[in-house]
Amino acid sequence: MKIQKILLVDDDPNIQMIAQMGLEDRPEWKVTLASSGMEALEKFAVEKPDLVLLDMMMPGMDGVTTLSKIKEQSENSQVPVIFMTAKAQKHEIEKYLTVGVAGVITKPFDPMTLAQDIVKIIGHD
Asked: Residue 38 and residue 27: Cα distance in Å, rounded?
């Protein structure tokens, strides 16, 4: 599966901007932004992304809840989801991996290597 559409979910507009700049270094990647779990679910249904970058700590609906709602639809089960979080101690990352994420990118991340980090996690681009 080739990545073309990425849904980036984060409630911090600065992180959205920095991540989007890093991701759009890859001209074949189209980035859609969402600021909350609810908005992510709405945009996921319309955009049908190939990959979701999902903030863990958001008001209203956290990353784990958003992930479970995305994965409730069986046609979405193959879409890789990567958590982006500042809460990245070893035991926390191990817990995240048990809920079905493809991987974890820790904040603060380097926008210059973000695309490479994603490719490393999912194994292809």
From this structure: 28
